[in-house]
Amino acid sequence: MLHWLWNLASFVVVLGVLVTFHELGHYWVARRLGVRVQRFSVGFGRPLFKHVARDGVEWVIAAIPLGGYVKMLDEREAPVPAEWRDQAFNRQTLWKRMAIVAAGPVANLVLAVVLFWGAFVLGIPGVRPVVGEVVPGSIADKAGLQVADEVKTVGDRPVKSWTRFSLLIVEHVGESEELPVTVVRHGETVSLQLPLAEGGPLGENQSPLEWLGIKPWQPRPAPLVGQIEKNSAAERAGLKPGDKIVAIDGQEVRIWDDIGEYLVGKAGKSVTISIIRDGKEMTLVAEPGHNKRFPDKGYLGIAPKLDQQWREAVAKLRTVERFDIGEAIPRAIDRTWEILALSWKGLVKLLTGHLPISNLSGPVGIAQGAGQSAAVGPAYFLNFMALISVSLAFINLLPIPLLDGGHLLFYFVELVRRRPVSETAQMMAMKLGLLFMFAMFVLALFNDLNRLG
To answer: Domains in the chain, start-ordered, CATH in brackets?
Structure first.
């Protein structure tokens, strides 16, 4: 329950900040260009908070935090007093209207730069991209990647973490050309070429690393029992914290991962577990339960004891992407542009089938990401907010009626034809846009719930 409350609170913070800044863009430019603003609302539906300022603007926080709007004086919506008509939105020149509409997405891009800058100054934590396993016959295998290689560049861009590496790989999924990468192997830099054409489209629920055929290197805990769930198969069998598991059904256990491999197909069946306790070897009999996450694997209900050697190995894998205050500014601008370009490429890959439609995330997915990033730390949370801010800007710039990009499309047509798009045509397009956005929302929500299982 607390987990979901944490995610919800993080989601509200993320969306509240991003939507507020987006609408402030519209508001600020509208006021500077002489347009009268009537209402500034964060959220939709019933107002939870309302304040009328001296200038007549109604500031509102509404119940449904899935967006916001700035209501401007407009003769198309209600009669306007003669003395205010020059302040009505519909009376403004085409360029002023375009500037006001474009200001929202631009504000989100500016905010993204600020957030990336803050994240870079604090230092974004990550895990060094060290290869732990290469699947035979995979793209990575054909490129010559080896266990213990540490990736340093993808194309001409530096890589310091698996998160960064995965993002850059997604950008190139579906391409026919080979992608150059450099790795450090035994202290020497080695140049390789990833044959991307061998991979085809990204599969459903497949990560970029799985698509390449790579598993990250991670320290393997020793087979020492650290924790035991109550009423679990392990507790019923008599296992205790501190026990060292040395064999299962006569098969030697050397590392913790061996336990999971030996329990495949053992759910509901008796297994013999050989352990060492207080220097003495003992044999126990357990009947593993069923694992909801991995139904083909028996479940004992134990967790490993993480010793000092394991902790030191984990510490060596940690990395931080950090820049000083001055250098962080161009880095933040570059990262914002890079993510915006990646958003466009991602959309093209979705439409061409190179990325699965299941990659779309909705409010539940964003809430999970917000909660997880907030739990990691402030820099990671700022980085997450910056990514969502760029996505919000990109989505709003799409030429879909109902969005800012849809309005800009109408204005572009007006610019070419030298007369506005008819009210009837705009209303019809708005209805189609609403249906399309609702369908996308339902699809994204379905993906979210499907990922939850």
So the answer is: 125-218+316-321 (2.30.42.10), 225-305 (2.30.42.10)
